[in-house]
Amino acid sequence: MKGPKAGSFVIGISGGSGSGKTTLARELVNQLGPRAAILYQDWYYRDQSHRFDRDGGSVNFDHPDALEFELLAQHLAELRSGRSVKTPQYDFVTHQRRAEPLPFTCREVVVVDGILILHAELVRPHLDLAIFVKTPEELRFSRRLERDVAERGRTPEGVKAQFQNQVKPMHDQFVEPSQTHADHVVEGTGSFSSIIQQILRNLP
Ligand SMILES: Nc1ncnc2c1ncn2[C@@H]1O[C@H](COP(=O)(O)OP(=O)(O)OP(=O)(O)O)[C@@H](O)[C@H]1O
Ligand SMILES: [Mg+2]
After folding, report:
1. What is the pLDDT of residue 118?
2. Number of domains in the chain
3. Regions in the chain scoring below 50 on pLDDT
4. 41 lines ligand 1 (CB under 6 A)
5. HSE of 82 in the Cβ direction (CA atoms, 13 Å)?
6. Range 160-166 contact pairs with CB under 8 angstroms and sequence separation of 24 or more
7. What is the pLDDT of residue 150?
8. Ligand 1 centre and the CA of 18: distance in Å?
9. Beta bridge partners of 184
10. How many angstroms separate the alpha carbon of residue 117 from the centre of ligand 1?
11. Fewest Cβ atoms closer than 10 Å to its Cβ: which of 2, 34, 44, 142?
């Protein structure tokens, strides 16, 4: 495997919300240890504090315009050239970026996790390998409902409204069609061990 000075090998993991992206990304990075790290698309949300009203309200977090893909693409280019970056840190409580960016050290492998990274034309050229996790809508919705209520202090009504008004329509319009750009489309309902073994075998 090439060293960090040669630049990061960038693996994109996409799929709908609740598909299992973060689960796969973490399992992969756990296998690789400190040689790898996850970079989250969600860090690159634009400041929404002046517009945010309520969950499922006027801010559509599932639309590509909500994200600064220019900056994400620039950072991936830096990492692939062997340089570390400072990533923004979007805070979902204040809907602003935190004052201090996060130092993100260049690693042999960088795993990018995000619903829209395969949709974004600026980002795609910086992915050395692209995976799309495909999971039925009912299961993605039930996973998201459980997580957002348990871990993000949200109400079931807010989660349902956001899913119907934004998550589902944006998924159907932007996320689902972007799977055509993936090297591998994997099921998000079972074990990820075979795709992980395949990825590990094919690393440079
Ligand atoms: N292959 C799987 N089998 C069973 N449960 C899974 C699987 N993948 C993920 N899950 C469970 O589903 C939930 C959502 O998974 P995860 O957080 O990875 O989704 P995500 O694609 O990252 O969603 P989001 O885009 O909303 O962050 C978690 O509770 C996770 O444990
Ligand atoms: Mg996730």
Report:
1. 98
2. 1
3. 1-4
4. no
5. 6
6. 160/56, 161/55, 161/56, 162/55, 162/56, 163/56, 164/56, 165/56, 166/56, 166/60, 166/61, 166/62, 166/63
7. 93
8. 5
9. 131
10. 17
11. 34
Measured over the CA atoms of residue 52, residue 53, residue 54 and residue 60, the dihedral's sign is negative
Give the number of whichever ligand sits closest to the CA of residue 152: 1
Largest CA-CA distance found in the chain, in angstroms, rounded: 49
pTM here?
0.94
> In DSSP terms, which residues pair with 129 in a beta bridge?
11
Cα of 5 to ligand 2 centre, how many Å? Answer: 29
Domain carrying residue 128: 4-201
pLDDT for res 4: 45
Does residue 18 have its Cβ closer than 6 Å to ligand 1? yes
pLDDT tens string 84-117 = 999 999 998 888 999 999 999 999 999 999 999 9
Q: How far is the CA of 5 from the centre of ligand 1 (A)?
A: 33
Q: Residue 49's pLDDT is what?
A: 87
Q: Angle at which helices 193-201 and 21-32 pack, to 10 degrees?
A: 50
**Probe target for ligand 1 pocket from 143, 145, 151, 192, with the most ligand atoms within 8 Å of CB:** 143
